[in-house]
Design goal:
107 residues, disordered N terminus, DNA-binding, disulfide bond, 4 iron, 4 sulfur cluster binding, iron-sulfur, transcription regulation
Length: 107
């Protein structure tokens, strides 16, 4: 699997068009749609990705069932959704968390 790097936004800025900026952009999509132990290797691609929060929010908001998205497997995402059935917008929550993280880094 080849990991392409692209121009990355500031790690503190929420990006609406996140997909082309992901570390996985340009890689074989089948590498992220694996099962079992291979998911661990797929999750490594997400480490250090500048848009990991955006990717995860999109997968959670759209109830994406398969593949590794935002550093989480389908099982991990299902468990999170079960723990937090009250959440209507993961985008709002993760964007807010990203902004707070940026404020903490500046202070």
């Amino acid at each position: 699997m080849t990991i392409h790097t692209t121009a990355k936004p500031a790690d503190t800025t929420w990006v609406e068009e996140w997909a082309p900026l992901g570390r996985c952009a340009g890689t074989d999509p089948d590498a992220l749609f694996v099962q079992g132990k291979a998911q661990r290797a797929a999750k490594v691609v997400c480490k250090g990705c500048p848009v990991v929060a955006e990717c995860l929010a999109d997968a959670l908001d759209n109830r994406t069932e398969f593949g590794v998205w935002g550093g989480m497997t389908e099982r991990e995402r299902r468990a999170l959704l079960r723990r937090r059935p009250d959440v209507r917008s993961w985008t709002a929550i993760l964007a807010s968390a990203k902004a707070r993280s940026a404020e903490g880094a500046i202070a």
